[in-house]
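Case study B.
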Amino acid sequence: MHADKPIAESTVRRLSLYLRVLEHAMERGIRTISSEELADEGGTTSAQVRKDLSFFGSFGTRGRGYHVAELVSELQRILGLGREWRVYIIGAGKIGAALASYHGFVQRGFTVLGIYDNDPRLVGTIVDGVTVRDFATLADDARRESPEIVVLAVPGEVAQAVAERVVAAGIHAILNFAPVPLHVPAHITVRSVNMALELEGLAYAIVHRDSVTPAA
Amino acid sequence: MHADKPIAESTVRRLSLYLRVLEHAMERGIRTISSEELADEGGTTSAQVRKDLSFFGSFGTRGRGYHVAELVSELQRILGLGREWRVYIIGAGKIGAALASYHGFVQRGFTVLGIYDNDPRLVGTIVDGVTVRDFATLADDARRESPEIVVLAVPGEVAQAVAERVVAAGIHAILNFAPVPLHVPAHITVRSVNMALELEGLAYAIVHRDSVTPAA
DNA sequence: CCGAGCTTGTGAAATTCTTCACAAGTCCTC
DNA sequence: GAGGACTTGTGAAGAATTTCACAAGCTCGG
Ligand SMILES: NC(=O)c1ccc[n+]([C@@H]2O[C@H](COP(=O)([O-])OP(=O)(O)OC[C@H]3O[C@@H](n4cnc5c(N)ncnc54)[C@H](O)[C@@H]3O)[C@@H](O)[C@H]2O)c1
Ligand SMILES: NC(=O)c1ccc[n+]([C@@H]2O[C@H](COP(=O)([O-])OP(=O)(O)OC[C@H]3O[C@@H](n4cnc5c(N)ncnc54)[C@H](O)[C@@H]3O)[C@@H](O)[C@H]2O)c1
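Model:
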């Protein structure tokens, strides 16, 4: 639909953020927003906002700004959110269960088709309306349902092995919650959410903050 | 202890990752590791590893590599993990509860002193050994216990307001799980974990993958 | 219909981050 | 104790990302 140059991951991240800000603005009845306002809410700069958007087209009106509802649907289209995404969650533990029942995902078109676990005590139970399936049936189910995305919420020790089973089942995108780097073939897309790493980043910032900032 | 230049957030992130890889290597009885091996495991390049470490000193031996145990303790020191960090979790819902009982945090020195909620039905209950406290007592408790870090696991609609109470209570570091950008004074450090945003990044990658890669 | 006031879209400059490439140091074998 | 095989640490080059700055375009009031 438009020429695809390679877009930086940081840009895509910000687009998601803009979308959230815009939806919030829409709820409050705001019709029009400038790059400046969008930047303030999203924690970036107006030039950054305009540059990010310019990779995909030209959506604003000079002298006026962006029409909120229009930009929302443009961003949804760009991010691929106009459709339903079929998701499997693997690991029906604490994180897996929390994610399964998280309404924020459904709202954006991510439908959880199944939760998988290999613990016989969990298989067959129901988590927020979704039955826990036996991990052994993953490949068969995937052939039938062709999910696009897997959320990996298993212990770190087995994450790599499970990821390989996921890839073998023909699924090309993984959201990884285990605190280990996953090694997968190049055509598989992986994003990791590593909470321990973020906490450590805070610790680093606290330790080094006072030594950097000149004392007030 | 050493001259602090401003270090990129991406570098700090990778240091945490190296630490994890090194600990894993140590468990397997590996004594020595090269920047090449460390890079392969951590999903980066050897030059990147050496450059990252070079900001903090010179920890390896030419011709030999890095002594694993030694580099582990250097990284722990750099990241500020040699000590106990006192953490409050706010929001005793699904995510808050999962985090409270997550062993990976305790292991790295992050001690959860208290979980806060404003739902009277939850206050007083016990989540994995930690009692849920009344959010109204936050400021008083903080004065007494001086926690360094708050984990914010409340609904997005109240996240900004709760963050302001946290800042007012004198806490300077926030790990935010709500899917909204937080606006805080400059001396407060915030890291956000935004899972919806990562999922959207996957959706974007899937939609744009095939149009970028020349058909095989 | 004009001019003042805004705000976008975008090349170019500046900055930041990553990769290269190699001198220098270590180890091991013979 | 000399030479070959490795591997670090680091300036310099290169790539990527962000910021600047301004021409061009729209709006609105009179
Ligand atoms: N709980 C947290 O707050 C938290 C925070 C950060 C990261 N994580 C990470 O998320 C992952 C899950 O954490 P959790 O707290 O939900 O753990 P958990 O132990 O509660 O759940 C893990 C689930 O995975 C299942 N499982 C194990 N091996 C499996 C396999 N081979 N195939 C299918 N299922 C399998 C287990 O039966 C269990 O139900 C871990 O990697 C953890 O490090 C958790
Ligand atoms: N559950 C998930 O998988 C998931 C995934 C991504 C993001 N999140 C985000 O994490 C946050 C929490 O999600 P959750 O699923 O745990 O929600 P939840 O509704 O289960 O828990 C939220 C808790 O916060 C408490 N709370 C509300 N207002 C409060 C206030 N002013 N002070 C103190 N406590 C208050 C509520 O009583 C409730 O117990 C949300 O912002 C959500 O968007 C959750």
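The pocket of nicotinamide-adenine-dinucleotide (ligand 1) is lined by residues A 90-96, 116-119, 122, 135, 153-156, 158, 162, 177-179, 195; B 98-99, 102, 104 (CB under 6 Å). The remaining cases will be described in the next quarterly update.
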